[in-house]
Amino acid sequence: MAKGVDPAKVPYKTLYTGARMPAMGIGTFGSDKYSPEQVSSAVYGAVENGYRLIDCASVYQNEKEIGAVLGHLFEDQVVKREELFITGKVWNDMHGDGEVIASCKQSLTDLGLSYLDLYFVHWPFPNYHAPGCDGNSRNPDSRPFSTEEFMGVWRQCEQLLEEGLVRHIGMSNMTIPKLEAVLTLCKIQPAAIEMELHPGFQQPELFDYVQKHNIVPIGYCPIGSPSRPERDRTSEDVADTQMPEILEIAEAHRIHPAVVCLKWAVQRGQVPIPFSVKEPQYISNLKCITEDPLTDEEMEKIRLADKNCRLVKGQVFLWAGAKGWEDLWDVDGIIAK
Q1: Yes or no: is domain 7-328 CATH 3.20.20.100?
Q2: Mean pLDDT score across all residues of the chain
Q3: Which residue ranges does UniProt annotate as crossing the membrane (predicted)?
Q4: Among 184, 232, 259, 322, which is most exposed with the fewest C-beta within 10 angstroms?
Q5: Which position among 34, 51, 60, 128 bears the catalytic label?
Q6: Is 253 annotated as a binding residue?
């Protein structure tokens, strides 16, 4: 642990059940650029160096390899299962009756686990795309959000929890209008919500909404996702690590701009899940949240620098008749049909 981080020094968030989740995790989405072997090797190194939260998903196509690595970590006595907080996600093509249960069980088999700490509905509709597709890809079966369909998925998540296959359940890529439609119908509330969060896209209204409902926000793309797939790139995108405010703070602390983004995320109250296969990077990412915090003035400077620049627009999930990617995110305050 000489070059790593003592897990006891990593801050944590408390879920509504009282369970504790580390305030930073390692992401495992290889962005169509990194092989399952590269990602799983990074998971071993990350855990060896102090990470205890691992964010997984079936659609990332690397759970078997991560499962093999988890087995090695347990065998090598690097960590015990109960010391890890492992998440999973049901993909959009497994929303049918019984399919959420089957998908979770397959993930458990692939990961070599008896339970997941948190299981997400990855996207709130059954629209999906082929792995590695381009931004113009469309599935003719895609359709708008349906409260009834979503609750059918959520009831299966609740069943997973009741059967002990998962400890908590969560939602992802939601909006306030969608949450307003479903939260009162939930028998078991979401413990966390994954959402895009970085200095250039802070989603203050949604962030405040989930916190007021005792739901922990988990932020993906925490440093602006420089490795995201080409389909998620547009000429208008803002690079967080090049924002003047971030660069100024980085210079003052003599740290990398990406580290500023991560410090900001944890101090603000969200759980960032940065992805890296490079050991110096993932160690630096975790270490930075245990030392040299940003000042209140720096936090305020970043708050005011929000560019409302969504990077993962999700246009591959659009349905026939949709006006544009904005329809996925209910930007007018109503659920798009």
Answers
A1: yes
A2: 94
A3: none
A4: 184
A5: 60
A6: no
